[in-house]
Design brief:
- The protein has one domain (2-61).
- Helix content is 24%, strand content 29%.
- The protein has one helix at residues 47-61; strands at 2-5, 15-18, 24-27, 29-31, 42-44.
- The longest helix has 15 residues, at 47-61.
Length: 63
């Protein structure tokens, strides 16, 4: 796993990762909700994390 966004030193805060298969993993606090398919979870993260992630992905995709 490679950290793409988030500034967490302890591992206990919202963070975005690049997984070994190239997909994204998002660490956040679980949101209790009904109606999600079996095996899926929803997490809560601050909007700034998503903006930071988008900036990082754009920067890495630019030749």
């Amino acid at each position: 796993m490679r950290v793409l966004a988030g500034n967490c030193r302890s591992g206990n805060c919202p963070t975005a990762y690049e997984l070994a298969d190239g997909k994204l993993g998002i660490q956040g606090y679980t949101v209790e909700t009904e109606g999600l398919p079996a095996g899926e979870s929803m997490v809560s993260v601050p909007p700034d994390l998503i903006l930071e992630l988008a900036d990082r992905l754009r920067a890495e995709a630019t030749p």
